[in-house]
């Protein structure tokens, strides 16, 4: 690749990065702006839409996990049993059983809500950091998952109740665990994505916030094709030199070729 083409690629990358950060700012302004009742609400930016969808999945998983664990605990405790030495009548026993059922229902709703909030907060932070990292790098990959896992683990460890020293140690431990989980999860995700068609792989690795022109898309396809078939594309510099040499040979006068055949 020539130097001029390298300069063009660097300029296009800078323009894409500027556009990406501009769209990220637009998404933040959309999320924090007040809605005018007399105006139509515009469609959300793709960054905010993707983040909300991923966070909603985390909230739903938290609701299921919190409610499921509490339901299992109540089931292991067994049905309510009246006191063995109770001398209450049937109406009083029925009232106590109804109160116990109400308490179990309240505990189930409480744990379900807590699970949704906890998982939703962690998922929102994880996907926000992952998206910001992918926008800054102009592509999605393993590095974004590791960064998001590290940040989420650090914040989760810092929320542990206790002294400042305990929180610092918990944050350091959460950072290490988050980075390790990010590496494992990222490698697993990259392995699964490698089985998808090439078009789907390009859609995943290219964030929706960065507009891709037809020329950039053609360049990405040529690079991927060149990696699959290394000998298909000749050297561009050698091709230009050969073309110039052929043009000089055709335009050289016949007398000069007869006098100096080495030219």
Brief summary:
77% of the residues lie in helices and 0% in strands.
- What portion of residues is helical? over 70%
Low-confidence stretches: 1-18
The succession of helices and strands, N to C, reads: HHHHHHHHH
Tell me about the largest β-sheet.
none
* CA(first)-CA(last) distance: 29 Å
**How does the helix and strand content classify structurally?**
mainly alpha
Radius of gyration: 31 Å
| Gross morphology | elongated
Number of helices: 9
What is the average per-residue confidence, as pLDDT, rounded to a whole number?
75
* Share in β-strands: under 5%
How many DSSP-defined strands? 0
Your description of this structure?
The chain has 263 residues and is an all-alpha fold. Among the domains are: 44-79 and 94-137; 138-215, no CATH class. Helices cover 77% and strands 0% of the residues. It contains 9 helices and no strands. α1 (3-32) packs antiparallel against α3 (90-137) and α3 packs across α4. It is elongated and about 120 Å long. The relative contact order is 0.09.
């Amino acid at each position: 690749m020539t130097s001029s083409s390298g300069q063009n690629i660097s300029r296009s990358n800078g323009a894409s990065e500027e556009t990406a950060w501009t769209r990220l700012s637009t998404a933040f302004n959309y999320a924090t702006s007040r809605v005018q009742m007399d105006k139509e609400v515009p469609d959300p930016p793709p960054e905010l839409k993707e983040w909300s969808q991923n966070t909603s999945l985390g909230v739903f998983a938290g609701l299921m996990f919190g409610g499921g664990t509490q339901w299992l605990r109540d089931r292991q405790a067994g049905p309510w049993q009246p006191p063995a030495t109770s001398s209450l009548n049937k109406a009083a026993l029925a009232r106590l059983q109804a109160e116990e059922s109400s308490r179990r229902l309240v505990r189930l709703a409480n744990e379900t809500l807590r699970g949704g909030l906890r998982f939703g907060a962690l998922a929102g932070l994880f996907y926000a950091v992952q998206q910001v990292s992918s926008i800054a790098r102009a592509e999605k990959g393993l590095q974004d998952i590791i960064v998001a896992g590290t940040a989420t683990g650090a914040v989760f460890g810092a929320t542990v109740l206790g002294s400042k020293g305990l929180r610092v140690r918990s944050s350091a431990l959460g950072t290490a665990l988050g980075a390790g989980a990010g590496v494992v999860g990222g490698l697993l995700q990259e392995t699964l994505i490698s089985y998808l068609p090439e078009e789907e792989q390009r859609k995943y690795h290219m964030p929706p916030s960065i507009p891709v022109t037809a020329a950039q898309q053609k360049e990405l396809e040529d690079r991927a094709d060149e990696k699959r078939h290394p000998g298909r594309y000749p050297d561009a510099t050698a091709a230009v030199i050969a073309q110039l040499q052929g043009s000089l040979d055709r335009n050289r006068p016949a007398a000069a070729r007869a006098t100096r055949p080495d030219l």
